[in-house]
Design brief:
Blueprint (H helix, E strand, L loop, with lengths): L5 H31 L15 H4 L5 H37 L5 H13 L2 H12 L6 H8 L11 H29 L3 H9 L4 H29 L3 H6 L11 H10 L4 H23 L8
Helix pairs in contact: 1-12, 3-7, 3-9, 4-7, 5-7, 7-9, 9-12, 11-12
Length: 293
């Protein structure tokens, strides 16, 4: 009797999961693709096929500004989360090996920022960056004799403020991934390096970073996708202002649909965001080390 192939035997068990994923992930993509080729408006029952939603994006002055903002916001946030997450992970691992007290408290504090909803995170940082007399950061600057800073009303400072708020919340995610990767590195490598009188920087550069490369790239892909799709923190913090100084692509799509009521154009913007995410993900995936054959 011929034995059934493992792949065919598993197919009936995987089919329900595939259908569930298709329902929640593929259907919205196809629906957005359909709406992008219409002139649909949010409260208009009648729609017609049209290329206006897509062609209207090309040469759009707001879109060019939004794309520049998205690049600056995503690059600053991703690099900041990677760097700060790696520093905290290194600190926690080293403190645990030295059996120092307080490492659990440190991890709890970092994780507390991660569980806060993004909209609440934006409100918290709006209060901190507020230029009113009760603004926490400017009040601290006045106490030490420094002039207050226009954190949210100055276009350049507003983008920096949005990046800082995103880094503060997202660092915990990077710390968790990199902490797990650091714990998996063979300690005999560091012992051999210590015997060869390698400095701390040399051990970090030639042992830690090469072994963290896959984790760093996977981490970068995940937080890049999350950052590209994040709009609620920016919405609560600056509303995209002043002007369009902090309006990123996801927020632009949100405003287009729920403030401009242009459902077709909003769907076209969401597809553009999907294409950007896929292209950047593929580029970073190509940098992942290939497994040995």
């Amino acid at each position: 009797m011929q034995r059934e192939q493992p792949g065919r035997a598993a197919l009936p068990w995987l089919l329900p999961s595939f259908l569930l994923l298709a329902l929640f992930y593929l259907y919205p993509v196809f629906e957005a693709l359909r709406l992008a080729f219409t002139d649909a408006r949010l409260f208009d029952a009648t729609t017609t096929l049209s290329l206006g939603s897509i062609t209207g994006l090309w040469g759009s002055a707001p879109l060019a500004t939004v794309l520049r903002n998205t690049l600056a916001y995503t690059l600053g946030s991703v690099l900041g989360q990677l760097a700060l997450g790696l520093c905290i992970a290194l600190l926690v691992v080293r403190a645990e090996r030295a059996r120092l007290r307080g490492t659990l408290v440190l991890r709890t504090i970092v994780l507390a920022a991660w569980v806060i909803p993004a909209i609440a995170n934006g409100i918290i940082w709006q209060l901190l960056f507020s230029e009113a007399p009760f603004g926490a950061i400017n009040s601290a600057l006045r106490l030490i004799g420094l002039a207050p800073v226009a954190w949210l009303s100055d276009p350049g400072n507003a983008m920096i403020s949005a990046i800082l708020a995103t880094i503060w919340q997202g660092t915990a995610y990077s710390m968790i991934l990199l902490y797990a990767a650091l714990r998996s590195i063979d300690q005999s490598l560091y012992e051999a390096a210590a015997i060869d009188n390698a400095t701390g920087f040399e051990r970090f550069w030639f042992i830690t970073l090469p072994h963290l490369r896959p984790a760093l790239l996977v981490n970068a892909i995940l937080i890049m996708i999350m950052t590209l799709n994040m709009f609620d923190t920016v919405l609560a913090l600056t509303g995209g202002g002043p002007g369009r100084a902090t309006e990123v692509l996801s927020l632009f799509a949100y405003n287009t649909v729920f403030r401009g009521f242009e459902l077709g154009r909003g769907a076209a913007l969401s597809l553009l965001l999907l294409v950007i995410s896929l292209v950047l993900t593929v580029c970073l995936t190509l940098l992942l080390p290939k497994g040995r054959k």
